[in-house]
Each structure stands twice: as structure tokens, then as C-alpha cells.
Structure prediction request, 907 residues.
Amino acid sequence: MSSAILHIAVILSPFVAVPVVGWAGGKRIVRSVLPALIAGLLAVYFISVLIIVGSSGPFSIAAEWAPTLNLSLSFRFDGLSALFATLITVVGTVIVVYGTKYFEDHRDAGKFNAALFAFMGSMLGLVLSDNVIALFVFWELTGFTSYLLIGFEHDPPEARRAATQALLVTGGGGLALLAAGILMLQAGGTAQLSELAGKGSLVADPVYPGIVALVLLAAFTKSAQFPFHFWLPNAMQAPTPVSAYLHSATMVKAGVYLVARMTPIVGGTMLWSSTIVIIGVITMLLGAGRAMLETDLKRVLAYSTISALGILMLLFAIGTPAAAMAGLVYLVAHACYKGALFLVAGVVEHGTGTRDVTGLAGLRRAMPATALAAGIAAASMAGVPLFGGFIAKEQLYDTVRLAALPAGWGDVLVVAVVGASMCLGAAGLIAGIAPFWGPSMPTPASHDVSAALWLGPLTLGIASVLLGLFPSLLSEPLALAVTATSGSTSGGNLALWHGFTITLALSALTLAGSVGLFTYRGRFWRIAWPRRLQTEHLYSKTLTALDTVSSRLGPLLQSASLRSYVLVVVLSAVGLVATTLAMNRVLPMVRRSTSVEFHEGALAALIVAGALSAAFARSTMAAVLSLGVVGYGVAVMYALLGAPDLAMTQFAVETLTVVIFVLVFSRLRGFGDLSSTAVKVRDALVAVAAGGLVTTLVLFIGASGTTSRLAAFFADAAPRLAHGNNIVNVILIDFRGFDTLGEITVLVTVAIGVRALLLIGRERGR
Amino acid sequence: MTSSILQTAVRLLMPLLLLFAVFLLLRGHNQPGGGFVGGLVVAASFVLYSIAFGVDAARRALLVRPSTLLGVGLLVALVSGLPAVAAGHAFMTALWTTVAAGSMAIAVGTPLVFDVGVFLAVIGVVLTIVFTLAEAVLAEE
Prediction:
């Protein structure tokens, strides 16, 4: 148990670190080293978890959260989650070091670190959660924190717009995930993913197609699959460290993770695989093609990322252990080289003031270390042997060639994948080679950057090289992850050399194609992508439609007239209660035994007279005084009938009401002629209906035995359970204390609202 | 408008009203009274004070801002529910202990703390509204 608490504390520690890294004061060394240290320790922790999972198998930990709602904070450490957690924290450490330097003199540097750590915690929760509802919560948290990160430079309106767009698209998908989770909970009887996976697939369930549709909607929006891909290039408004972290290494892969995680639960059917394969292939081709048309470094990388995400979806949809293995290798290799290239784009922009590739060349002299990192990453992305990307591409081709597809489609798929890979390789060369090669060009600024900036991309580049030279290093951790998603252990071996095969020939062909496309890159830049083929207008049309609906609906519901609100409230209450009474055939009954004393009758007459006088008063003063008669009369009635608490409260409230009336007197118009006759008749009818209903209820309650039963219970329970003899007060603060808490919260809110309205009025008056 | 009769009366009445309010608050558990009506009495006494001496004087006499009482009252009420959570019960479960005071044994529990929270919040609500209204009217004149 204690170790469970420890693990949960570590998983949630990035959230705890938010204020620490966000507002760390003191010397610059503290501000820059502390966040990196925390992230680094987390990375070490999850690497060791990965090793533990490898030696002693997956394990789960759990702590109750809201047991009545079937919610628990349960986390599962298996190969898949530990691999993702390692990726998140290792890349996160690189980003933190880089980001600290990138935002060195930025006024909001602390805020950036705070949001980054909140995101890291959300992402860790997402991949480690074993409860589907908790998974949803962390899923949405990554959306919220990414909103903060994309819109970090919030002055330009495009940045705010892009942040909102990413939030709405991925957040909408998150809601689909919640619905899918609830369906799974109902169909499978548990919200625990590991238990659902153990029970076997939910395929036989009638809601199965619904679950698949909802899960895929979530995965496709998060991982920028067609037709939701448009948010990712727009999100390039984000600062570069954010793009490198969220939009290449981690968040966009959450959708891929979801597909891998759900495969044992809902996967393995034609519906599941074919939908993902089709969408994945469309996304792969679309992203690869459009990457060739862009000249902004970050947009080139964004479209190539969309394409890579399509490839990952495709691989995980095939579902065989070998395909899962290929997917994981591709995922790790992609995180390394794409993260590095994004960081390089940031360095280039930092050093030159532009990231338009048509205006950049020859930077290798000005920034040699960055050029080295960029070259390595580009080589890996292009699939040059001895680099990580080569291994990934070999695995991809092997899988696609051997995939069990309907006759003829296998060859089509191979051609599509090779074509997309050629474009991706060329995109890698455009981003990693073009700015550094050739003769120097004049740029807005030109200076080398400090080590903290080029260290990050170089580290990721070296990781690519290590993966390329010693792929067997990753065999074991990846095999663990394969087990988690496909249930089988035989994932195939990673090796640098597979002999002279068709796959090797395809790799060589791809490399040649990439170089060719790269050489003639200028021709593609002249092509403009037709507006008709963009899916973003679907998003804007949806937003416009929603705006139209709410602008029509809003005034109907929010008339800003207190009288109509009161009318609606009273009429609803009367209608609902009267319907219930009629359905139960309740009739007012008068208890014969009730005797009315003379002074009680006189008091009642006085109250009625006061009410009538208030209704017909033609001056404010007369109305207020008449209402006072009603109020004090009711208070005296309470006192007579043995409710001193109510009487005291009523007296105090009446007194204060009079004071408040006196204060607002000067602002009230004489209201003798405010309403037309028709309105007066309507109001009278409503008033009579409400009064009649209350009278019926009182007579009914008086005639039935309900009152005495409750009174007896409280008279017995109050002294025994609540140590008090005053039943009214005991009910208020103990038996129904939670209600009272709600009521005083409402009162406090009202007070704040009144004050705000009056102060606004005074501001306007000036 | 200043009336020395009202001012003298208020000077004499204020301590009595405040004492009465605390009395209502404390005895509320067994006799008529409680935090809500106690809070109303305190609020009414300060409203009376503001009528006699003006809103500024009443604000000074209150020592804290009414808006502070809003927050503190709500917080006290909320916090009174937490010991139960710490003890492993549901939020706001009443916890009682008996304190010996001379020959009597007085039951003390978290609902009393809750009642104090209600008391403070009610004072804050009424005075926030009345003082703001009064100042708005004054500003207009």
C-alpha cells in the first residue's frame, strides 16, 4: 500500500512541481537548474520502472478516489505505459533544458515552465491510467494545458485562435472518449482497462460499433487524423519547444496510444482495423504531400508529423505483434528525429529571425553544432542506414509487405507507403539540410546560439544514431510494450542488417526518391493547395452554426427581466406540483378537529388585507408598508404556532428588508401605471394559481400523517445523535448541514453579485 | 441627517445587541436561536449604527470589511466538515466531544463551528449588500 502511494505521488509530482518551477525565485542558476533536475529525476524513475517491468512483469497500483462513482486512481505499469512514460519524461527533460534557455529573458518564463509541468503530469496520467474515466480526465487535462502552451504568446490573435481550435477539436474528441468509457463500463461491468482486456473483447456487445466510433473519434482528433488534421499546422503558432514536445513527441501520439491500448479490448475486428487503416492511409498521403508544398520550417514538420501519425495508426491497426513492434520502433525513432528537427527550427529562428526555408542557406558556418544535430536528424528521417529512421522504415516495409490484406490491395498499400516515405524523407532534408547547406544568405539576424539550445537537438540526434547502430538495445523494452497491446511476446528482432531483401531494395529506392524530390523542391513550392480540399472550413462552419443557434436561443432564455424569470419559476413549480397532485388524485381536505381561535383569525385577516393592499398600492411607500404588514403578521403567526426560530428570523429579515427598501427608494419609479391591464390580469392569474396550490398542499399535509412521523423522528434523533434539543437548528446545521452550506454559498454569491452590479453602475455613471 | 437621540440610543443598544447575537448563536443548539438569526441580529445592529452615524463610521466600527466576512464565513463552514474526512468519515459528518466545565458536561462538536461559519457569512452578506447600496445612493445624491 505504501509503495502504491509512493508511485501515485511520483506520477502526480509534476502537478505539485507547478508552483515550484513556475515561481522559483532567486538566482538564475536556481531557476534554470531546478526544473531540469525535477524532470531529469522523473526520467530516471520511469527508466527504472521500465527495467522493473521487464524483470518482474507488469504491476498495478490503486487508491480510492470516489468509490461511489466507480472512480479510482489506478495506474498500470506495463510495457506500453512505461515506454510512453519514459518517452514523455526523457524528451520532457530535453525540452525543459532547451525551453529555459529559449525563454531566458521572457517575462513569462515561469508561466511556461508551470504549464509545461502541468502538461507533463497530465500526459503521464493519461498513459498510466488503468481506469477509463481517469484516462478521460487526464486526456482533457492534456487538452487544457496544451491550450495554455499553444497560446503562450497570446498577443497575436492567430495564436489565440489556434489554441482555441486545438482545444475545441481535441476536447470534443475527449468527450467522445468519455461516452465510450461509459459504454464500456456498462457493457463490460468495469471501468478498469486491465480487467476489460482480461475479459476478452466487447465485440459481441450490441453497442460495440458505438464504442469503436467514439474511441476512434477521440483518437483521430487527438492524433490529427484526416479530416481533423487541420489543427496541427495551425498549432505551429506555439513556441517551438512546445511544438517539439506536444506536436511531435507526446500529445499527438496520445491517439496512437489509445488505439494501442484499446486493441485488446475492442480491436481485432474488420470494422476496427479497416476504419483505422483507411483513415491512416489518407492522412499519411495527405500529410506527406502537403509537407512538400510548405516553405515554413515548422509547417513542413507539422505536415510530415501528420503523415507519420497516419503511418503509426496504420501499423497499430494491422494488429499483429510484428506490426505493433514496427509501430513502436517508428514511434520512438520519430520522437527522436522530429523532436530534434523542431528544436533545430527553433534554434534557426532564434539565430536568424526567420524560419522560411527559401531565405535560409549556409548556416553551417554560423552555427556548426546545430548543423550537425540537424544533419543527423534529417538523415534519420530520410532513412539513411546506420540511423534510427532506417530501422523504423525497414520494419514498416516488412510489416506492410506481409500484412494480410485483400488481394491486390497489399501492393497498393506498399506503393502508397513508399511514396509517402519519399516525401517524408525529402521533408526531413528540407528541414534539416537546406538551411545549413550551400552559400550563405543574408538573414534578419545572424549569430550562433549557446550550448543549452543546440544540446537538446544534438542529444535527440545522438539517440537516433544509437538506435540506428544498436537497435537490439530497444528490443526488450519494445517487446514488453508489444505484449501489452497485442498479447503476444513474439515481436520479431530488431537488427541493423536483414540481408539482401526486397525491403532493403525499397529502402534504397525511397532514399533515392527523397533525394530526387529534395533536389527539385522549388517546383513544389509554387503549387498552392486548393481551398476546396481543406477540411478546416468544416470547423469554422460548425462554429458559425453554433453561434447562430446560441444567438437565437440566448435572448429567449436570458431576457434579463426579473419579472419574467419569476414568472417562469413560479409557473414551472405550479405546473409540476399540480400535475403530480392530479396524477395521485390528491384533494384538499380540511381536518375537522382544527379549531381557530379569534386572535388567530384576526391575524390571518390582517395578513390577507396587507397582501391585497400591497397588490393594489399605487405608491411605493404604500406597497412597502403593506408588505411589512404581511411579513410581520406571518412572523407573529409563527410565534403563535410554536415556531420561535422562524419568528425571530422573520422579524430580523423584515426589519432589514425595510432598511434596504428605504435605501433604494429614491431609485424606484412610482409603479401605479407600469403594467398594462392584460399583464395585470396575467399576473393575477399566476398569483392565484400559486396561492391556490400552496393552500392545497398545506391542507393536504395537515390531513395526512406525514408531519407527525417526521416530527417524532427528529424529536428522538436530535438529542440522541446531534446533542441538541432545538430541532430546527439541529436540522439546519447537522442533519441537513450540506444543504445549508450550499445555501450560504448562494447567499455569498448573491452578495458579491449585488456589489459588483452596483459598482459597475457607479463606474458607468461617472 | 444626524439625530443625537438616535445616536445615544445606538451607543447604548449596540453592546446589548451584539451580546444578544452571540447569546443566540451559542444557545441555538438547545433553545431558539442559531447562527443564522444571530448573524442577522449583528447585521441589523450595524445597519442601525450606519443609520445613526453614517456608513463610513459603521465600516470603521466593523473593523473588517464585510467582503472579508463572506470569505471567512464560507471557509469556516467548509473547514468544519474536514475533520470528519480526516477521521475517515464522509464530509461534514458531525464529530462530538464532551468538555467538562465545572459540574456540567458540555457537548462540543463540529456543527458548532459550522454554525459560526453561517453566522459570519450572514453578517457578511447583509452588510455587503446594505453598505454598498447605501454608498451607491450617497454617491448619486
